[in-house]
Structures are given as structure tokens and as C-alpha cells.
């Protein structure tokens, strides 16, 4: 128990520290990397709570895919932090005041008075036989099948919206359809030999030849 | 546990909408640019089928499906029907605008249908989880619709604001839900209500959760002080998108409030009543006062939407079945009025021109007297002038407030609605007593738009003369419980 | 002997087990590099390295010594911390993955239920080493390489993940040991046959995930010099190298485990029961793994490099649809108990 507690506080501290660094680092790439760290340590916290499926999926989905793309974007963009921070100091006192009040209120409600061990005693460890993934899957596809289906529609909408907002057909694109490339046959499809006398000057190369050379 | 196919019966309207959206999505791929009108027809057919299915599976006792995630009762039947009808109007009005701007593409219909689907899910939700997911489905589709004109900077800005504030609202709502879950141990509305009744007001966590729920609901309604997004989005977004997000989603937001507060937390009525009173007074006040100063009609209608949200809250906070029925009546009527108002704006727009300012309505009577009459009906109804239905709606919510001895609140509401009447009547003055701009062309509209607008306008009059038709349905929906 | 082992504290036991896994692995990596040069050499009718030791067998050691002795150069304006951290981020997941890898029945460091998920999660972390290396180097070539690699790894991870979903549907478990157990019954009971499309997708995605030819645009020496590790020298470079080869071995071993029955013998159980070397055992796994390792070298020697847009197209538009369709097929086969694989 003692070691588990130690691990909990260790990962909790790392999570908090990393979260603090996310908002305080000047370099956006560093901020994103700290966010990754925060995700990884919260995944560790979940695993400590015997929610190993959620913990691993957090790493797989958020750290392994979402944050990679996020990092990708942040590296490509030249985010001007100075411009974003203009007025930061001016608003800081008000922001701190409100944040402080909120933090106290939340602590009073969410703190040990209402959610302490007396209200929610620690559940007995489930043991190593319990397959978290299996249990979750069974529940999701029986009791919660309706919400799961709605969530899948939400994802579909996200895809459609993202494509609608970003996909533009560009007429000047040099892209060649791979199916056409594959279909090219040996012989006249690829190259056309033009017989010509070697000494008389030829005005222009046949335009058809240029077109073929694209493929 | 074997799956019971009987669960699928009550969601047949949703399934119809989902199938329609998927069909449009795929058919659109194979349509040539000049044939894109087929998307429109398919969507309307889908909506009509959904209405028919709603009628077919509706009625009868309240039933719960999908292990408590879904409910089918009088409220869901009526609201589903209203949402579908209003959405049909919206699709019809939007078509010419989209066509003129080369935006008559499948995505508009797909996103619109998914927004409708989200609203349908919300009104028949029986757990906080389903409510939230329906809300997100609707919101996500609407964000995309607001940004639909992707070359428009204003549209992109509006979408960004809508998205950020909408996400904030959803976040607060979710936080509130987590508190409720923490205190009651359930996300299903029925068990939550029982647990709350057992614990009562003693549990501070519940009250804390309610604060966040009400904030979330306020955000979705656009009630003061969570209204900041409304005017900017109404102004910046393309008019068809505003038509979509300004009409039917108010019905869905009403459902959100009814399900969460009335069905989930009925015994904490005293707590949320106080919060709703504040929201109602502020919304009616700020909405109606600031609307006077607007020259942009979309902005004006935005502030008017804020004011109307206050009136809907009046019915909700009464806490009586009569009050809920009145609020429901108001929400449905407002959605129809709003669809009509934005429909007229779309009719006034043409290729390369968007009707946005009050001046654009000048002399509408000289250009097309029938549409002028319809717009007058809409404005009268919004102002609450008898014999239009707006008057009945206002009267009913005021009555419910008076019945719980909040006479001062009723007086405040009357005062603000009189102030509000000024800017609605000003629109009518522009329509009838001003000359049209010299370069204003004749209004050309298709037969479908004219029929829809006629139905829309006359419905407001007819419901005003014979309110019992809709009102009895509203009252029946709440009487069953 | 067992008493002595049991007397050791648990931490020491685990450390010893880790060493027992990692040391042979690193040795294998070292000689894999030599094998690569030799095999490709012979395929191209060259001899390959043959100077150090008998026929060049000491070459990897010479290479290691050379790399250790070299200076680690940090480019100007590079992000020093991240620059030094990147190789470690690349190698740590490549090593940690082996914790749940079963080498024989019951012979596994950590027998966890969600073994397959763990492997997926950790192999998805490997990309950070590459991206950070590319960004921290303060070099255009490196950044370009990192970008290509990030896009490629995210794209192929989905296909790879879906292929593994097919495996877990077929086996009904995420535990690697249970997945092997589900393939009991000889060559044609292994999953490669019922999951043939997924096997193909998995193997090719595995090559893409490890940034190997013909998917090595992230390095693309003829276009962007060496991609993400262009600025690395000495041990930094060596560690990236180690990570890449360790990942290749992992992909080969996983293919053997998930689609080719792991330590199971290809011959029917009744023939080989108890027969020395023909019965199930670690040697079968090793043999299969070595075959796939060889296949990866073979691919490199055979195919020209893909163009970037072709890679993206293959990942998103070909592999992902194939895997989705085949997951459906497998699910139906499992539900309706398609013989001979799911007849029980």
C-alpha cells in the first residue's frame, strides 16, 4: 500500500507540474511536450486506479495520435507568443482573483467534506483476474449501446465538418492518379519514338510527348 | 444480454434522419454540380418520413428504452414533430441562397440533418449522458454550418467564437453533470430524481452541480449573462446557418432544460428557480433594450432571441405543469417565428447581396406585398400583438408566473415586452412607410418558398386565433406525468 | 537453484529477467546490422563487409567502438535538452515493449491482460523521438524528415491498430499468450490464413512504421540527406540506429506471434508431441522471427522508395478500408463459428 501511495503522489505531482509548465512555457513546442507528459502521468494515475484500459487508451489515442498531430501543427506554425501574451499582465490580477475564488469554492465542495473516504470508501482491489477491457466492452455494447452509437455519429460529423472546411480542389495540382499510372502499358503508352532527320532543325517538341512524360 | 429489437421502434424517426443523411452524403459524391438539387429533395423526403414515423410511433404511455437512456413520452413526440417541421421550413428557405452562391452542396444538408438528429436525440433523452451527446451532435454540426461559407472571414470568426464559447458551455454543463453524478451515483434522470429527493437540499454538491447545469443551459439558450456569443454569431454567420441555429435549437434547448431540471432535479426546484429568475430578468431586460439600438437586422433578431429566452425561462421557473406547458408552447412558437423572420431575410437576399440591415427591408410592401404581410405577421407575433400567437404565448407564461405569486416578475416582463414592441414595430414601419431603395430589384422566389412562407406566416395567425390546437398538446404532454 | 532464485528480492529478480531479455536483443540488433549489409550485398552481387574478423563477423563491434569514440556534436541554436532527449525517447519504448512479449508458454516478464494494447500504445510513442529530434536539431532537412515521419506513422498506426483489432477479435483476447493459444493446431490453424488481408496490411504497415525501405521517406538520403537524424553523431546516432533495428525485430517477432502461431510447431500436434525440436518451443518463434527479419532486408533490396503522396494514399485509402472490411468479416466468422478456425 505504501509503495502505491508513493507512486500516486509521484505521478500526481508530475501531472500538476507538467500542467503548470504547459501554461507557463514561452516555447509552444515545449508546452505541447509538457502536455504530453501530463497525459502520460495521468494515464499512470488511471492505471493505479485499476483502470488499465483507459490508461493505455489515453496513451494510445491522445499521446500516440492526437498530440503527434498537434505537435506537428505547432512546429509548422510560427506561433507568436508575445502577441498572444499582450495584455496578459493587465488581466492577470482579475484572472487570479476569479481563479482563486473558483478554486476555493471547488475545494470546499469537492474536497474531503463531501467526497472524503467516509462518503466514498475505497473499493476493494478487484484482483488480477478481472479483465477491465472485457467488462468495459460488455457494458458499452449492451447498456450503453445507444450513447455509443450517438458518439459514433458525432465522430462522423467531425470528419464531414473537417473535410468541408478544409478540402479544396486545386486545378493547378500536378497530382497523377496512381490507378492511371499503374495502367500504363509497355510501348506507345509510355514513350513514343518520333522519326526525324538529325540535321534539319525541328521547331518544337511535339506537345503530346510532354504530356506523356508526366506519367 | 440479447438485444431487444423493440428498442429500435421509438427511435425510428432518428434512424430515418440518419439514413437520409448517409444517403445524401453518398449520393452527393456522384452528383454533377447542376444536379445538386436532388440533395434538397432527398433531405425533405427524409424529414417528411421522419415526421410520419414520429406520428406512427408516438402517443400512448410514457416508455423507457435502451436501459434507461431513452424515453418516449408526450414531450418527446411533440417536440420531435416541431423540430422536424421547423427544419423543413429552414431547408426550403435556405435553398435559393445556397444556390446563388454555389454552396448548394451535399455537406450543407448532411450537417443540417445531423443537427436535426442531435436535437431529436436531446428531446428523447432520459439520461444526462444521452442529453449531452445529443447536444454535442447538434452543436458540432452547427459550428460547421456557421463556418460553411469558408471564404468569408466574418463567418470564420463567428464560427470560432461559437465554437470556443459553445465548448466552454458544454464543459461547464459536463462539470455540473459530474457533480450530480458524484452526489447521486447515477446519470439516469429517474434514479437521479429519486436520489435527490432522498437527500434533499442538505447536499451542497447538488446545488453546486445545479449552478453549472443552469450556466450550461443559459449558454445554450443564449441567456444573459451567457449571451455574448449570440449577436456576433447571428451577424457573422451565413443567414441560412443563422436560420438553422436560431430556430429549432431553441426547442432542443428547452428540452435540455426540461429534462435536466424538471425531470432530473424536481425536488430542487426552489434552488434553480432563483437562478432562472435572475437569468430571465436580465435576458428580457438586456435583450429588449439593446435590440433598439441595432441597425443590423440580424443583430437585432439576435438580441430579440435573448429577450425571448427570458420569456421561456418565465414558464420554466414557475415550476407548475401549466408553466412548463406554457414554456413549451412559447419555445415552439418562437422557433416558428424565428424561422419566418430569417426566411424573409433569405428571400430578400440575392446573388452577391445579403439582406442584413434594417434599411434593406425598406418598402418591402412595394416590392412584394404578400411577403410584406407575412413579415408583418412575424413581427407582430414577436412583439406579442394580438391576435397573433406571440400574444398568446406571452400571456400564458405571464399567467403561470402570476399563479405562483410572482406578480412583480410578470410586471417586469410586461414592461420589457412593451419596450421590445418598439423595435419590432419599427421594422413594420420600414416595410410599409418607406420607399424601397432605387436599385432594389423585384423579388423573385420559387413556388416552394412562397408556399412555405405563407404557411409559416399564416400559422402564426391561425395559432393565435385558435391556440387550443397546439396548447392542448403541450398541456397533454405534461399532464401525462 | 530454484531456491537461490526465490531467495532473491523481487526487484532483483525482475532486473535479472530484464537483463536476460535485453542483452540477447541488443546482440541480435548488432548482428542484424551486419546481416543487413551482407544480405543486401549478396543480393546485389557484392561481398559486403569482410575486413574485421573472419568474413567480417566482428564488424558490428568495430562499428560500436567507432561510434562510442566519436564526438557528439550539438548544432548551433539547437534545443540542447530536447536534442539529447530525443534518442532516449526513441529507444525507451522500443525496449519497454518487450516486457509483455511471451517467448514461450508462460515465459513472459509481465503477463498482463491488455498486452496487445500495451504494445500498440508503446509503439505509438516511438514517433516522439523522431519528431523531437527533427525539431530540436534546428535544421530544415531534419524538420522535413520529422514531419514526413510523423504523418506516415500516424497514418499507418491506424491501419496497424485495425489489423490488430482483427487479431483480437479472432482470438477473443488481448493477452499475447492467449492469442498464441488460440492458434493451436498446425500451420493452417494459424491466423495468417483466415486473416490474410490483415496479415498483409500489418506486415506492410510494420515496415512503414519502422521507416524502412520502401517507406523510408523520413530518411530519404537522396532527397533530404538523412532526415531526422542528419545532425546526430556518435552515440546519439547509434541510439537511433538501435531503436530502429529493435523495432524491426519487434515487428518481425510480433508477426510471428500474432499471425504465425508464435512458438507453436507447424506440424499437427499428434505428430510432434514430445519429439525433440519438432514440438512447440521457443526455437520455432525464433525461426519465424528470423524469417520475417530476413524478409524486411529482402524488401529493402528489392523495392524502390515510394513517393510521399503514394505512401499517404496507400495508408489512408487502401489499407484502412481493407482492415475495416476484414474486421467485419472476421467478426461475422467468429459469431457464426466458421469452421475450421472457430468451430468450437
From TrEMBL, chain A:
Q: Which principal EC class is assigned to this enzyme?
A: translocase
Q: Which GO terms describe its molecular function?
A: NADH dehydrogenase (ubiquinone) activity; quinone binding
Question: Principal place where this protein is found?
Answer: membrane
Gene Ontology terms, cellular component aspect?
plasma membrane
The residues the entry assigns to the signal sequence are none
Which reaction(s) are listed as its catalytic activity?
A: a quinone + NADH + 5 H(+)(in) = a quinol + NAD(+) + 4 H(+)(out)
- Record's keyword terms, sorted: Cell membrane, Membrane, NAD, Quinone, Transmembrane, Transmembrane helix
Provide the transmembrane region boundaries: 6-24, 31-49, 55-79, 91-110, 144-167
Task: List locations, semicolon-separated.
Answer: Cell membrane
Instruction: State the annotated membrane topology for this chain.
Output: Multi-pass membrane protein
Q: Could you tell me the EC number(s) of this protein?
A: 7.1.1.-
- The UniProt record lists the keyword Transmembrane helix: yes
NCBIfam families, per database record: PRK06638.1-4
Quaternary context: Composed of 13 different subunits. Subunits NuoA, H, J, K, L, M, N constitute the membrane sector of the complex.
Protein role = NDH-1 shuttles electrons from NADH, via FMN and iron-sulfur (Fe-S) centers, to quinones in the respiratory chain. Couples the redox reaction to proton translocation (for every two electrons transferred, four hydrogen ions are translocated across the cytoplasmic membrane), and thus conserves the redox energy in a proton gradient.
Family label: Belongs to the complex I subunit 6 family.
Q: Which protein are we looking at? A: NADH-quinone oxidoreductase subunit J
Q: Which organism is it from?
A: Thiobaca trueperi
Automatic annotation (TrEMBL), chain B:
Tell me the membrane topology, using the record's own terms.
Multi-pass membrane protein
Tell me which EC number(s) this protein carries. Answer: 7.1.1.-
Query: What are the record keywords, sorted?
Result: Cell membrane, Membrane, NAD, Quinone, Translocase, Transmembrane, Transmembrane helix, Transport, Ubiquinone
- Where would I find the NADH:quinone oxidoreductase/Mrp antiporter transmembrane domain in this sequence? 125-419
Please tell me one Gene Ontology term that the record gives under cellular component.
endomembrane system
Record-annotated membrane-spanning stretches: 12-31, 38-58, 78-96, 108-125, 160-181, 201-221, 242-262, 274-293, 300-318, 324-348, 369-386, 406-425, 458-480
Q: Does the keyword Cell membrane apply?
A: yes
Q: Which GO terms describe its molecular function?
A: NADH dehydrogenase (quinone) (non-electrogenic) activity; NADH dehydrogenase (ubiquinone) activity; quinone binding
State the reactions this protein catalyses: a quinone + NADH + 5 H(+)(in) = a quinol + NAD(+) + 4 H(+)(out)
| Nucleotidyltransferase recorded as keyword | no
Compartment(s) where it occurs, according to its Swiss-Prot or TrEMBL record: Cell membrane; Endomembrane system; Membrane
Tell me one GO biological process term.
Answer: ATP synthesis coupled electron transport
Q: What does this protein do?
A: NDH-1 shuttles electrons from NADH, via FMN and iron-sulfur (Fe-S) centers, to quinones in the respiratory chain. The immediate electron acceptor for the enzyme in this species is believed to be ubiquinone. Couples the redox reaction to proton translocation (for every two electrons transferred, four hydrogen ions are translocated across the cytoplasmic membrane), and thus conserves the redox energy in a proton gradient.
Q: Which NCBIfam families match?
A: NDH_I_N, PRK05777.1-5
Q: How does it assemble?
A: NDH-1 is composed of 14 different subunits. Subunits NuoA, H, J, K, L, M, N constitute the membrane sector of the complex.
State the family named in the UniProt similarity comment for this chain: Belongs to the complex I subunit 2 family.
The name under which this protein is listed is NADH-quinone oxidoreductase subunit N
**Organism of origin:** Thiobaca trueperi
Automatic annotation (TrEMBL), chain C:
The upper taxonomy is: Bacteria, Pseudomonadati, Pseudomonadota, Gammaproteobacteria, Chromatiales
User: Which EC number(s) does the record attach to this protein?
Assistant: 7.1.1.-
What does this protein do, in the record's words?
A: NDH-1 shuttles electrons from NADH, via FMN and iron-sulfur (Fe-S) centers, to quinones in the respiratory chain. The immediate electron acceptor for the enzyme in this species is believed to be ubiquinone. Couples the redox reaction to proton translocation (for every two electrons transferred, four hydrogen ions are translocated across the cytoplasmic membrane), and thus conserves the redox energy in a proton gradient. This subunit may bind ubiquinone.
Among HAMAP family, the record links this protein to: NDH1_NuoH (MF_01350)
Q: Which named protein is this?
A: NADH-quinone oxidoreductase subunit H
On subunit structure and binding partners, the annotation says:
NDH-1 is composed of 14 different subunits. Subunits NuoA, H, J, K, L, M, N constitute the membrane sector of the complex.
What are the subcellular locations of this protein?
Cell membrane; Membrane
Per the UniProt record, the source organism is Thiobaca trueperi
Q: Which GO terms describe its cellular component?
A: plasma membrane
Q: Which PANTHER family match?
A: NADH DEHYDROGENASE SUBUNIT 1, NADH-UBIQUINONE OXIDOREDUCTASE CHAIN 1
**What Pfam families does the record point to?**
NADHdh
